[in-house]
Specification:
Blueprint: H1 6-30, H2 37-82, H3 87-94, H4 101-114, H5 119-130, H6 133-148, H7 153-203, H8 219-246, H9 253-269
């Protein structure tokens, strides 16, 4: 997965948001009384959310790849320093190995140092570029160890254990929350199934039913209400799934797109 810069995410939001607003305005001006009005609004939401969702997921995978290779990097640095190498030399040697997405960042650090940039500046630049929670915690410790001198490998050994433990806990958390993500999806599909059954067995069959007390909603009105309800549940249910699964609301955009699409297809071809 490639690295996604912050300005790329902003551009995606601006472009997709502008396109979504254009679709909404078109629907308001041309399709206000048409059955397609709700569908155009849903299309606008999906178009607005889909590109940022893809970029957010790609960025998450890239950062996850960086974090997963940190223990291997620290282990190789310890081995290199035990053989007599300095910390910059150990990083240069590590950049020749395959650490996935982390390799390119190491090569960039080595290139910066070869241009005359100090090790501290190159490491700080690395921390700003990568911008993960684990890197943010480890970079200051490495800098302090480098400044204090002595046997720096004694710092990397507990760092490697700390990062590995953190990653293990994170994997366990995701494993424990996975059933809750499934519950959100199951609840949404049960909701859609209930709507289909109600619509086909109740509203369609009783369109002419009325009393002096009330008049039943028409199938078109009922479909519109259920359509809005499914869209709201799909969108916000996806955000909740992202918060539980990845710890960020933005991580739920992809779930929102999936649920909204499933809801639209159900209403388009079944209801």
């Amino acid at each position: 997965m490639p690295k996604i810069e912050k300005f790329e995410k902003k551009i995606a939001w601006i472009v997709s948001g502008s396109l979504g607003i254009f679709i909404c305005l078109t629907a308001i001006l041309l399709l206000r009384d048409s059955p397609l009005f709700d569908e155009y609004f849903l299309l606008a939401v999906v178009i607005t959310v889909f590109p940022p969702a893809v970029l957010d997921y790609a960025d998450y995978r890239w950062k996850r790849s960086i974090d997963k290779h940190l223990p291997d990097l620290f282990r190789s640095i310890v081995q290199a320093q035990k053989s007599g190498m300095t910390l910059p030399q150990a990083l240069e040697e590590a950049s020749k190995r395959n650490y996935g997405s982390l390799t390119k960042e190491l090569e960039r650090m080595v290139a910066q140092m070869s241009w005359g940039v100090s090790f501290e500046e190159a490491l700080q630049s690395f921390g700003k570029r990568v911008d993960t929670a684990l890197v943010g915690r480890t970079v200051p410790l490495i800098l302090e160890a480098q400044r204090s001198g002595g046997r720096v490998e004694k710092v990397f050994e507990p760092l490697e254990k700390f990062v590995q433990t953190t990653l293990t806990f994170d994997d366990e958390r995701k494993t424990q929350t996975r059933p809750y993500l499934a519950i959100i999806y199951v609840a949404f599909f049960v909701f859609l199934f209930t709507i289909v059954m109600l619509f086909k067995s109740f509203f369609v069959e009783m369109t002419d039913f009325s009393t002096g007390q009330f008049t039943l909603m028409s199938p078109q009105e009922a479909r519109s209400v259920f359509f809005h309800m499914s869209a709201i549940q799909g969108f916000f249910g996806g955000l909740v799934a992202g918060k539980m699964g990845e710890g960020t609301v933005g991580g739920g955009l992809k779930h929102s797109v999936i649920l909204l699409t499933c809801g639209y297809l159900a209403f388009k071809f079944i209801v």
